[in-house]
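Hey team,

Filing this mostly as a record. A colleague (T.K.) asked me to run one chain through the structure pipeline before their review meeting, and I want the input and output archived in the tracker in case anyone asks later how it was produced. No errors, nothing strange. Just documentation.

Input sequence:
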Amino acid sequence: MPLVPLKHTESAPPSTTPTPERKLRMVARDLIAHQVLKPHSHPWGQLTYARDGMLHVIADNNTWFVPPMRAIWIPPNIVHEIRTMENARLRALYSYAGYVPFPDDHCVVLEVSPLLRELILSIENINQAGPREDHLVQVILDELQHAETLPMHLAMPHDKRLKTLCESLIAEPASTLTLEDYAQQVGASARTLSRLFEQDLGLTFGQWRQQMRLTRATSLIANGLPLSRVASQLGYTSQSAFSAMFKKTFGKSPSAFYQDK
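Output structure:
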């Protein structure tokens, strides 16, 4: 199904723009599957939390797959694009640039603790400034600083030939084509592609494909697909092989990772 572009905006309505007086502002948006918020940036940071639905976020020549009940932090002034892989209920917290919870200028996927989830729900229902909002903001910022980060990041190459190869792999994660096979498709030798993987991404072809498969697994598991089918669709020889690699990467089994929070 093709993506459906939404109106491109680079600024928030005045009522939701964060200020030194109101450091965090909430924007709620429900989107249908396969919609896209076109590339844009803004001077404030943004925590996008998916209550439901899987997100595909593209920023700074990198891509992230954000499962439901997790969130992605996008620093100020970073050009980013958000795509919905299914119906999604988004809750975006705009954070005033002087009060960002993370010092680095990189996007990061975060675990949303039960406490943080309830705090987001609480601040969504506040309509005016006041002591209650101030208290909630302070607790939210503190909770964000202690949130667990998740390795959902997938670097994308700059070289056009390598980018074509990587996009083909994302579209068909179970593909068994070798680097030599892809070399014929993109018009470069396997040796050249191997060198580009190392130089552009710091990974071998096999390492990047494995990382891509694990990040793609998040959407399949979140949609309730049995682990045996997830393993098959991602090109693993068995469910146990997939589960072992998933646990090695994320620190917990797929079923534990996606249990109700």
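Quick notes for T.K.: The mean pLDDT is 86. The radius of gyration is 19 Å.
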